[in-house]
Design goal:
mainly beta; Immunoglobulin-like; 2 domains; seven-stranded mixed beta sheet; 37% strand
Length: 492
Amino acid sequence: MNWNPRSNLSRRSLLVGGAAFLAAGAMIGRVSAAAQAGTAIRLIAKPARVPLVGGHRDATDVWAYNGSVPGPELRFRQGQRLRIAVENQLAEETTVHWHGVRTPNAMDGVPFLTQKPIAPGETFAYEFDLPDAGTFWYHPHHRSFEQVGRGLYGPLIVEELEPIQVDRDVTWVLDDWRLLPDARIRDDFGGFMDMSHAGRIGNTVTINGRVPQAFSVRSGERLRLRLVNAANARIFGLQFEGHRSKVIALDGQPVEPHEPENRRIVLGPAQRADLVIDMTGAPGATHAVFDRFSQGSAYKLVDLAYSAEPPIRAEPLDAPLRLADNPLPELDLAAAERHEVAFGGGMMGGGMMEGMMSETMSGGTMEGMMGGGMMEGMMGGMSDGKIWTINGVSMIGHLDTPFLTLRRGGSHVLAMRNSTSFHHPIHFHGHAFRVLSRNGEPTVHREWRDTVLMAPDERVEIAFVADNPGDWMIHCHILEHLAAGMMGTIRI
C-alpha cells in the first residue's frame, strides 16, 4: 500500500487491508437524549486506539470522544435541551464547538472568546436548547488543526418532530488521514506547506472511522443519508453510480428537494448534506460511489453492495421529501446593511502578490524587495504564522477587536470575495445565512447554510438576521488556514 502523504489516493491505496463496511459496521454508536431521562450525557476526550485501516494493520493511536472515531452520534428531538458534560483527559486544553447549532454565545466553545479552555482533568457543562432540526456535528475549537486531525469529532443529529418516511436513516462521517505505512498518524501537524497552501490533505479516506469497502443495501429501500465532512482540508465531490439522489437539506437547513448539479454532491470541510436515495439496483448488484471533486485524482470511495434478497417494493416509495423549515428569522433584504469582506493571503497569488506590487508602486524595487525589505517582512509574517487574512488582517492566537459590529435584529449582507488561489469553506458561528449569489448570479435554491465553499477568485453574497447577541467567529474551516490567520470576530 502506498501511503506516501504526497501521493494521490488510488483505489488500491484506499482499500487494501480495509475491513468490510457493511450495514452493521456502518452504524456509529448512538446516544439518544430520550434515553438519558434528562441527565447530562458525558463526553470524554482522551487518547484511544482504533482500527482505522483494519486487516493485518495495527490499530491507530488517535484522540477520541468516548474511545471511538467518530465520537458517539448524539440524537435529540427538535426543541429538546442538550446537556453534555465534557471531560478533558488529554494532556492539553480543549473545548467543544457545536457546529451549525444556533447556541447562546457562552455555549459556542471558542476558547478565550466565549469560554475558558477546558484544562486537563477538568469538566465543562454545555447546556442549551436545540431550535433547529438537522444534521450538525461537534469538534474542538482549540488547536483544532491537530485535535480534529487526530480524531476528535462526532455527529449531532436533531430529529424533526415529523420526520420524512424512509426505510433507514444513516450517517456517514467522512474524513481523511495522513498515515504512515504502519498505520500511525504522521506527526507533522502545523507544517508550513499545509498552512500556506491547501491544508492538511491525507492519504487514507474513512467513513465512520473505517477504511470502507462495501456498504450493504437492499433493492427497493429508501435511505436518508446524512453526510458530514469532518476532514481538515479535503473537499469531497461524491457521485453515486447508477443512482439518482435528492438533496433535502444543506448544513442541516431544509432545501427544496433537488438533484445535485452534475449528480455530484460537493462538500467542503465542515459542510453537511442530507440526501434521499432510492435503491433501484437489482438484487446482488454492486454500484460504486466515487469522489470526483478533483477530476485528475478521482477514486472509488465505497461500493453499494445489494443483498440477494428480493426488493422491498417494486416502485420507489411515494412519500413527500420536503422537510419543514426551521424557525429562522425573516430577512428584510430591502433594508439590509451591506458589508464587504475580503479573504486574502497564501503562497500562490492573491494577497501576497498584491502586497509585493503595492511595494513596487510605492517606490520599492524588485531587487530591494527580494534583497531584504519586502521579503524580510513577508517571511517574518510567515514565521509568526500570519499567512491568511480577513480584510487585510491576519489573526492568530486569541481573537481581539471585532472587524465588524452589527446592529442586533437587523438584516445584513456580507459581500465576500476570495482573493486567493485556494478554496475556502467560510463558516459563521451562531447563525444560519442565506446564500444569495455567486459571482453576481442569484443562487438557484437560495439555500440556508452555516458554511459556504468559496472557489478561488469567487465572489459570494450571504445574508442573515443578526439576532444572536455576542462576539462570533467567522473563519475558513480548512483548519490550517484558520490557524494561520483566516479568522475574525463579528460583534452583535
